[in-house]
Amino acid sequence: MAKLEIIDLHASVDGKEILKGVNLSVSTGETVALLGPNGHGKSTLLAVIMGHPRYTVTSGKILLDGKDVLTMTVDERSRAGLFLGMQYPSEVPGVINADFLKAAINAHREKPITLFQFYRTLETNSKEMKISLDMANRSLNEGFSGGEKKRNEILQMRLLNPTFAMLDEIDSGLDVDALQTVSEAIRKQQEQETGFLVISHYARLYSLISPTRVAVMVNGRIAVEGGKEIIDKIDSTGFEWINTELGISIEKEQPDMRDVSIGSCATREAINSGK
Q: For residue 243, what pLDDT is reported?
């Protein structure tokens, strides 16, 4: 059983502290739902784990089976088994989707995948995701709808078969049918014992993927952990009970970080390292 550990993690961006002592662990076979008000550090946590270059880790540790993740580059973290499905996937003109996917697969293999194996695997997984193979010949995410971008992220996850998958609001922009498709792909990945850390503001996704544990992030820290009953409580009453029952005052939201993305640099790294 592999384990991802976040220990007293502090991180800042542009001199402003966002993560203020996060402690959380995820083991393979677990699916942890990460909830919390907007702007309290959820997306920042996932970005820091994956190696976003704009964030500065000021103290704390991230360990993957005891290995120091913070010393790894983004591509090394990916090869070690980490995957991030981004909330806002970047459009990368000029990089063909199929070329990117093939390079990403090869970056995780000692021996490059054959063209026949690649297209057979791509076809199988594209059908699973209800993605037209025409998308494989388009520039990565360029002109894709929001739902197409999210399904393409999950397609990458299925092709790479990570040890730990972090999904940042992967359900936003999905219609009902696409949500069912994405959820089914996540369930299949769960059967492979992949550990999940999943951010969503909607109970519907969690009802479809059945998290094993829930963590709530407030003010840059994990305020409470527990079972799926926490999702129902937040869905029905919001986060005010964090204040009234736990005595934790919810600070003002942090600035919107939607313009911050590692998509382009990670994509270029995959293309450069792929065979």
A: 87
d(CA 187, CA 175): 18
The residues facing 68 across adjacent strands are 63
Q: Cα torsion for 5, 100, 192, 177, to the nearest 10°?
A: 110
Which residues touch 48 (CB under 8 Å, ≥6 apart)?
A: 9, 11, 19, 55, 57, 62
Q: β-strands 67-68, 56-64: how paired?
A: antiparallel
Where is pLDDT greater, at 269 or 246?
A: 246
Summarize pLDDT for 110-140 with one digit per residue, the tens. Answer: 999 999 999 999 999 999 999 988 899 999 9
Whole-angstrom distance, CA of residue 6 vs CA of residue 49: 9
φ, ψ for residue 159, nearest 5 deg: -70, -35
Is the Cβ–Cβ distance between 170 and 201 less than 8 Å?
no
Angle between helix 115-128 and helix 176-191 axes, rounded to 10 deg: 130
Q: What is the model's pTM?
A: 0.89
Tally of CB atoms within 10 A around 51 = 23
Task: Tell me the pLDDT tens digit for each residue of 249-268.
Answer: 888 654 443 333 333 334 34
Strand-pairing partners, residue 67, are 64
Q: How many CA atoms lie within 13 A of 219 on its CB side?
A: 9
Mean pLDDT (the chain, rounded): 90
C-alpha angle 56-57-61 in degrees, rounded to nearest 5: 160
How far is the C-alpha of 159 from the C-alpha of 262, rounded, in Å? 20
